[in-house]
TrEMBL record:
This is Phospholipid-transporting ATPase. Its EC number is 7.6.2.1. The gene is atp8b5a. Belongs to the cation transport ATPase (P-type) (TC 3.A.3) family. Type IV subfamily. It comes from Electrophorus electricus (Electric eel). NCBIfam families: ATPase-Plipid, ATPase_P-type.
Length: 1166
C-alpha cells in the first residue's frame, strides 16, 4: 500500500523459491505476493502540492529565490518590495506545477487503462470478470483469442504472437501440459523459481494428483503477449504486476539531461560566485564610504549608531537582493516553454508522417530537443531499423543452378526494375497475387517436372512449422508463421505449385501441382540457436520415409554425404553471390530413411523426450545421429529489403560528420550485405574483421579508409577493462563499425563506452525489445514503430515509423532546436547581465546605499512582460536557413557538434558585451541629464527622471539587439517585439499616473515622471544614441568576420540570398553497388519448442469441417480467391508491400544537382 504517494510497505525478504497452490487465494495471500496493479503516477490529489513543491525547490534556482524572498521581508537589508520576487517566483512555480500535473494525469490515465482491462478469473467454481489489477498469484484465468495476457501464466495450451519482449518471434508455440482443467477444485501446486529477468529460462515443477511434471520456459506465457489462433485456453498465474518478467526487464530509466543543461549548472554556480564577488566589492565600498563620507551626510539622515562593519554586512545582503537578476528565475521556465514548442514541431511535421502505417513522429520527451543538434555517434540496429523486416523470396540455387537473375537478349544481367515482366502464376489458382518473381526459368523447370526442383519446393512446403488458416469457408488462406523467413519460403513454394494447405498433429497436406497429397508427420527435430537447423521426418503417400532438413550452410555442410562435394562447391559460389547482395540464405538437404532403423530410433526418441534429467542432451545426440549423410538439394536466398531512403539518410548523416555504428544480432555476412554505408564505400575501404582472435590496428599502420567488423564473442573480450580503450581507439579510426551477433547488454556497453571516453553526444535507434537497453543508455533514444512491437517506442525519447526520418529529425529539428536554444541563452544572459550591471555602476554614485536605479515596477516586470515574449519568439520561430537548405547542406550541422553556438567562451563574450552595454546605458544617460534642464527651464537631473531614462534606453537597446540576432522574422516576432515595446510605454504611463498615486502613494512614487520626461527631445536623442553605441560593436564585429572568416552558415545564407528566386532542384539518387562476397546470415529464426506442439496431439485449432485432407481440384474453383501471405510476410496479418508509389524523401525535394563548392569569400553558385 502507499501513503501520500510514498511506498510505506516494509520490504519483504528475498524469495528463494515460489510455491503456489492453484485456485486457492487464501493460501497464496499468506505469502504476500505482488498484486497485478501497475502504478506509474507520482501524485494524487492530497500529495500533489507538497510533493511537487518539494521537487521544485530541489532545483538550485528555485531554492535561491526562496531564500531571497526570506531576505526581502527583513526591513534592515531590503530596499525592494517583496512582490518583485514573489510575482516571478509564483508564476514560475505555477507554470511548472501545471505542466507536471498534466504529465501525471496522463500517467494516471495510462495506469487506469491497463489496470481496468478485464480478465476472466475462476472464483468459487465459476468464471467472473475481474479487472487486471484484481488478478492475484495462483488464480486461474481464461484467455481468449486476440486477448492480451494480464500476467505471466502457466498455460494449458495456447499459441501466442506479438511477443513484446521477443518480437522477432512472430508466433511462438508453448508446450501443452499433461493435466486436465477442473473448474471446481484446485489443480495442484507449483514450485518454481523466484521473480527474475531471465527470458530464456524457467525452472519449476507441477505436483498434480501425486505426480511431478517438469516445467520449463515453453510452458509459460509472458505478460503483454496476445493469444492467437486459439479460441480459448486456461492459465495459472505465476507472477503478477512488478514481478512479471516484462516489468523486471524494463530496467531503470535514468534521468537524461542535455549537455546544455550540464553546462548551465556550471555557469549558474559561476554566476553565483560572481554575484557574491560583486556584492563583496560593494559592501567593502560601503564600508569605505561610510568611514570617509558618512559623517558628512548625518545632517540629512537620522542618527544611527551602527558599526561600519555591521553596516557593510547588511549592505552585502541588500545587494544580494538587488543584483539577484543576474540569475533570472524566468530563464528556466522560458527554456521549458521553448523545448515544449520545439517538441510540438516534431509532432506536427507532416514530412515525418508515414502514410503507409498512419504513424506520425512523436517527441516523447520535451527536455532533449537541443541535444538532437549535437549528435556525434548514431548506434543503429539493423533488422527492422535499416531493413523492413519483410522477407521476400528473391533467389535460389537448385542442383548447382542459380535462379532469380534476369538477363537481357545479349546475356547481360541487369537489376530489377518496375518495367520488367513478373512471372505469370495464373496457372495456379492458389497462388498469392502479391508474390513477385522475375526469372521464368524456374517456373519452366517446375512445369517440366524436374526432379530436383520438385524436391526443392516439396521440402519448403513440408519442412516448417507454419500454420495455414482458412477463413470465409476456405475462400481466404492465411499463413501464420513464427518467423517471416518461413512465411516467405512457404509462400514461394505455394506460388510455384506446392501449396501447403492443412496441418494436423499427424500429417501435413500439400497440393502439388494441383494434386492433393498428405504426408504423415512422424517427427519434428526442432530448431534452436545451437542446432541452427530444423528437420522433419515424414512418410509419403507411397509409404517412403524421408528426412527433410534446412539450416545454416556451415551447419548443413558438415552433415552432407561425401558424394555432394562438387555440388557443395558450386552451391557455395552461389551463396557467396547471394551474400554480396545482402540476402539471407538457407541450405536445403534430404535423406531417405530405412523403416526398421527409424522404428528403433523413434523408440529411443520417445524415451529421451520423457526423461526428467538430461533430456536436451539425449535428444541432441539422437538428432546428430539421424541428421548425417544428407543429400544436398540447394539453397534459398531471402531479401530483407532496406527501408526507403536508408542509403540517402546515411549519406547525409556522414556528410554531417555523424558516425554510424551498426549493432545487430545478425550474422556477419548479413550485416555486411545490408549495411548501406559499408556497401557504398566498399570499393575504396579496407575492412578489418575481428573474429575470435582480435587484431588491433596501430595508429602508424592506418593508411586509408577502414571499416571495422567484430562479432559478439570477440566484443566480449574487447569490452574488458584492459582492451576497451584499444578497441575504442581502433573503432574511432574507422569510417564504419559493425558489431555482429551482439546481445542487448553488449549494445548498451558499447554505447556506454563511447559516452565514457569520447565525451560525445550519442543517439541509439532501434525497433525491438532487444534495443531497449541501448536506447536507454544513449543520450537520445529513438524508437521505430515497425514489425517488432512497441517496446522500443515505449522506452524511447523520440519515435517515428521509418529510419529515413532520422535525417530530418537531426538536420532540421535538432539543428534548429540547438540554434534557437543557444541564441535564446546568449540573448537572455545579455539582457539580464546588462540590466544588473547598471545597478553595479550606480552603486558608486549613490554611496553604496543599496538604492535601486530602476523603478520597482520595472524591476518586477522586466523579465515577465517587457522582454519575455520577444526572446520566446526567437526561441520558437527563428531559423538561419529553411529546412530544405538544412538538408541540402548537412555541413551546417557541424557547429552544433563542436558546441560553437554556446559554450563557456561564448558565455564570457556575452558577459563582456553586457559589461560594455551597461557602461553605455549608465554613463550616457547620466551625462545627458547631469546639469540639464527641460524646455520649460526645470531641472531634470532627479533620480526618478534618470531612472526612467535609463530603463527606457535599456528596453529599446535590448529590443534592437534582439532584432540583430533574429535571422527569420515572422508576424509573431513582429507582434512580440513591437508589442512588448508598446506594452512598456503603456504600463509606464499607467503606473506613473496621478490616479494610481492618489490611491496608493507609497506604492507608486513615480508620479508624472513619464509624462514630464518623455516629451523632451533630449531624452529621445539619448535613447537613440545609447542604442547605436550598444549595437555598433556587434555590427562591426559581424561584418568583419563575415568578410574575413565566414562560417558555414554565412556561406549558405549568402547562397540562399543569391538563389532566393530559385528553389534547389531535386537530386538524382545514385545506384548503390554491393561488392561484398561474405556469406549472408541464414534465414531461420523461430524458437525451440515450436515443433513439439505440432506433433503433440494437443493441437491449437479445432478440426476442419469434413472435406478431403488437403484439397481437391474442385476446391480450386473460381470462387476461391486466396489472400494468404506473400513473400512479403507480416506477422500482424496486414497486407505488406502493396504496389504503390514510394514517397519522395526530403532529400529528393530539396537537394541540388551537385554539392556546392565552398570558397573563402562565400559560396560559389552552382
Amino acid at each position: 500500500m502507499s501513503f501520500f504517494g510514498l511506498d510505506c510497505v516494509k520490504k519483504k525478504e528475498k524469495e528463494t523459491e515460489r510455491k503456489i497452490r492453484a485456485n486457492d487465494r487464501e493460501h497464496n495471500l499468506s505469502f504476500k505476493y505482488a498484486t497485478n496493479a501497475i502504478k506509474t503516477s507520482k501524485y494524487n490529489v492530497l500529495t500533489f502540492l507538497p510533493l511537487n513543491l518539494f521537487e521544485q525547490f530541489q532545483r538550485i534556482a528555485n531554492a535561491y529565490f526562496l531564500c531571497l524572498l526570506v531576505l526581502q521581508v527583513i526591513p534592515a537589508i531590503s530596499s525592494l518590495s517583496w512582490f518583485t520576487t514573489v510575482v516571478p517566483l509564483a508564476l514560475v512555480l505555477s507554470i511548472t506545477a501545471v505542466k507536471d500535473a498534466i504529465d501525471d494525469l496522463n500517467r494516471h490515465k495510462s495506469d487506469r487503462q491497463v489496470n481496468n482491462r478485464r480478465a476472466q478469473v475462476l472464483i468459487d467454481g465459476e468464471l467472473r470478470n475481474e479487472k487486471w489489477m484484481n488478478v492475484q498469484v495462483g488464480d486461474i484465468i481464461k484467455l481468449e483469442n486476440n486477448q492480451f495476457v494480464a500476467v505471466r501464466a502457466l498455460l494449458s495450451l495456447c499459441l501466442s504472437s506479438s511477443h513484446p519482449l521477443s518480437p522477432s518471434l512472430a508466433v511462438s508455440f508453448t508446450l501443452a501440459l499433461c493435466f486436465c482443467l477442473s473448474l471446481c477444485c484446485p489443480l495442484g501446486e507449483v514450485c518454481c523459481e523466484p521473480p527474475n529477468n531471465r527470458l530464456d529460462r524457467f525452472v519449476g515443477t507441477l505436483v498434480w494428483r501425486g505426480q511431478k511434471h517438469p516445467l520449463d520456459n515453453h510452458c509459460v506465457l509472458l505478460r503483454g503477449c496476445t493469444l492467437r489462433n486459439t479460441d480459448w485456453c486456461f492459465g495459472l498465474v505465476l507472477f503478477a504486476g512488478p514481478e512479471t518478467k516484462l516489468m523486471q526487464n524494463c530496467g531503470k530509466s535514468s534521468f537524461k539531461r542535455t549537455s546544455i543543461d550540464r553546462l548551465m549548472n556550471v555557469l549558474v554556480l559561476f554566476i553565483f560566485g560572481f554575484l557574491v564577488f560583486m556584492c563583496i566589492i560593494l559592501a567593502v565600498g560601503h564600508g569605505i564610504w561610510e568611514h570617509y563620507e558618512g559623517t558628512k551626510v548625518m545632517a540629512f539622515v537620522p542618527q544611527q549608531n551602527e558599526d561600519t562593519a555591521f553596516s557593510s554586512f547588511l549592505t552585502f545582503w541588500s545587494y544580494i537582493i538587488i543584483l539577484n537578476t543576474v540569475v533570472p528565475i524566468s530563464l528556466y521556465v522560458s527554456m521549458e516553454v521553448i523545448r515544449l514548442g520545439n517538441s510540438y514541431y516534431i509532432n506536427w511535421d507532416r514530412l515525418m508522417f508515414h502514410t503507409g502505417s498512419g504513424t506520425a513522429a512523436e517527441a516523447r520527451t520535451t527536455t532533449l530537443n537541443e541535444e538532437l543538434g549535437q549528435i556525434r555517434y548514431v548506434f543503429s540496429d539493423k533488422t527492422g531499423t535499416l531493413t523492413q523486416n519483410i522477407m521476400c523470396f528473391h533467389k535460389c540455387s537448385i542442383n548447382g543452378k542459380a535462379y532469380g537473375d534476369v538477363f537481357d537478349c545479349s546475356g547481360q544481367g541487369y537489376g530489377l526494375s518496375g518495367d520488367m515482366m513478373m512471372v505469370d502464376f495464373s496457372f495456379n489458382s492458389l497462388a498469392d497475387p502479391r508474390f513477385q518473381f522475375y526469372d521464368n526459368n524456374l517456373l519452366e523447370a517446375v512445369k517440366l517436372e524436374t526432379l530436383e526442383v520438385h524436391s526443392f519446393f516439396r521440402l519448403l512446403a513440408i519442412c516448417h512449422t507454419v500454420m495455414a488458416e482458412e477463413k470465409n469457408n476456405g475462400l481466404y488462406l492465411v499463413y501464420q508463421a513464427q518467423s517471416p523467413d518461413e512465411g516467405a519460403l512457404v509462400t514461394a513454394a505455394r506460388n510455384f505449385g506446392f501449396v501447403f494447405r492443412l496441418r494436423t498433429p499427424e500429417s501435413v497436406c500439400v497440393v502439388e501441382m494441383g494434386v492433393p497429397r498428405t504426408y504423415e508427420l512422424l517427427a519434428i527435430l526442432d530448431f534452436n540457436n545451437v542446432r541452427k537447423r530444423m528437420s522433419v521426418i515424414v512418410r509419403s503417400p507411397e509409404g517412403k520415409l524421408a528426412l527433410y532438413c534446412k539450416g545454416a550452410d556451415t551447419i548443413i555442410y558438415k552433415r552432407l554425404h561425401e558424394s555432394c562435394s562438387k555440388l557443395m562447391e558450386v552451391t557455395t559460389e552461389h551463396l557467396n553471390e547471394f551474400a554480396g547482395e545482402g540476402l539471407r540464405t538457407l541450405v536445403l538437404a534430404y535423406k531417405d530413411l530405412d523403416e526398421e532403423y527409424f522404428s528403433e530410433w523413434k523408440q529411443r526418441h520417445h524415451q529421451a523426450s520423457t526423461a526428467l534429467e538430461g533430456r536436451e542432451d539425449k535428444l541432441n545426440q539422437l538428432y546428430e545421429e539421424i541428421e548425417k549423410d544428407l543429400l544436398l538439394i540447394g539453397a534459398t536466398a531471402i531479401e530483407d529489403k532496406l527501408q526507403d531512403g536508408v542509403s540517402q539518410t546515411i549519406e547525409q548523416l556522414a556528410k554531417a560528420d555523424i558516425k554510424i555504428w551498426v549493432l545487430t544480432g545478425d550474422k556477419q555476412g548479413a550485416s555486411l550485405g545490408h549495411n548501406p554505408h559499408h556497401s557504398t564505400c566498399s570499393q575504396r575501404k579496407k575492412t578489418i574483421i575481428l573474429g575470435n582472435n582480435p587484431k588491433v590496428v596501430q595508429d602508424e599502420n592506418v593508411n586509408g579508409e577502414y571499416g571495422l567488423v567484430i562479432n559478439g564473442h570477440s566484443l566480449a573480450y574487447a569490452l574488458e577493462g584492459s582492451m576497451e580503450l584499444e578497441f575504442l581507439r581502433t573503432a574511432c579510426m574507422c569510417k564504419t563499425v559493425i558489431c555482429c551477433r551482439v546481445t542487448p547488454m553488449q549494445k548498451a556497453q558499447v554505447v556506454e563506452l563511447v559516452k565514457k571516453y569520447k565525451q560525445a553526444v550519442t543517439l541509439a535507434i532501434g525497433d525491438g525489445a532487444n534495443d531497449v537497453s541501448m536506447i536507454k543508455a544513449a543520450h537520445i533514444g529513438v524508437g521505430i514503430s515497425g514489425q517488432e512491437g512497441m517496446q522500443a517506442v515505449l522506452s524511447s525519447d523520440f519515435s517515428f515509423a521509418q529510419f529515413r526520418y532520422l535525417q530530418r529529425l537531426l538536420l532540421v529539428h535538432g539543428r534548429w532546436s540547438y540554434l534557437r536554444m543557444c541564441k535564446f541563452l546568449r540573448y537572455f544572459f545579455y539582457k539580464n547581465f546588462t540590466f544588473t550591471f547598471v545597478h553595479f555602476w550606480f552603486a558608486f554614485f549613490c554611496g553604496f546605499s543599496a538604492q535601486t536605479v530602476y523603478d520597482e515596477t520595472f524591476i518586477a516586470l522586466y523579465n515577465l512582460m517587457y522582454t519575455a515574449l520577444p526572446v520566446l519568439g526567437m526561441g520558437l520561430f527563428d531559423q538561419d536557413v529553411s529546412d530544405g537548405w538544412s538538408l541540402e547542406y548537412p555541413q551546417l550541422y557541424e557547429p552544433g557538434q563542436r558546441s560553437l553556438y554556446f559554450s563557456k567562451g561564448a558565455f564570457i563574450k556575452c558577459a563582456l558585451h553586457s559589461c560594455y552595454s551597461s557602461l553605455v546605458l549608465f554613463f550616457v544617460p547620466y551625462a545627458a541629464v547631469r546639469d540639464s534642464v527641460s524646455t520649460d527651464g526645470h531641472d531634470i537631473a532627479d533620480h526618478q527622471s534618470f531612472a526612467l531614462l535609463t530603463q527606457t534606453c535599456l528596453t529599446v537597446t535590448v529590443c534592437v539587439q534582439l532584432g540583430l540576432d533574429l535571422s527569420y522574422w515572422t508576424a509573431v516576432n513582429h507582434l512580440f517585439v513591437w508589442g512588448s515595446l508598446g506594452m512598456y510605454f503603456l504600463v509606464t504611463f499607467t503606473m506613473q499616473s496621478d490616479g494610481l498615486h492618489r490611491l496608493y502613494a507609497s506604492s507608486f512614487p513615480f508620479v508624472g515622471t513619464a509624462r514630464n520626461s518623455l516629451d523632451q527631445v533630449t531624452v529621445w536623442l539619448t535613447v537613440l544614441l545609447t542604442a547605436v553605441l550598444c549595437v555598433l560593436p556587434v555590427v562591426v564585429h559581424r561584418f568583419l568576420f563575415m568578410q574575413l572568416n565566414p562560417t558555414i552558415n554565412d556561406k549558405v545564407r549568402l547562397k540562399v540570398h543569391q538563389m532566393k528566386a530559385q528553389p534547389p532542384p531535386p537530386r538524382r539518387r545514385a545506384r548503390i553497388r554491393r561488392s561484398s562476397t561474405r556469406r549472408s546470415g541464414y534465414a531461420f529464426s523461430h524458437a525451440y519448442g515450436y515443433g513439439d506442439l505440432v506433433t503433440s496431439k494437443r493441437f491449437l485449432r479445432r478440426p476442419v469441417p469434413s472435406r478431403s485432407a488437403g484439397s481437391t481440384p474442385a476446391g480450386r474453383s473460381a470462387a476461391f480467391r486466396p489472400a494468404g501471405r506473400s513473400a512479403g510476410y507480416s506477422p500482424s496479418g496486414q497486407e505488406q508491400n502493396p504496389k504503390q508509389a514510394t514517397e519522395p524523401t526530403e532529400l529528393q525535394r530539396y537537394r541540388a544537382v551537385h554539392d556546392a563548392t565552398f570558397c573563402r569569400q562565400g559560396v560559389a553558385p552552382e
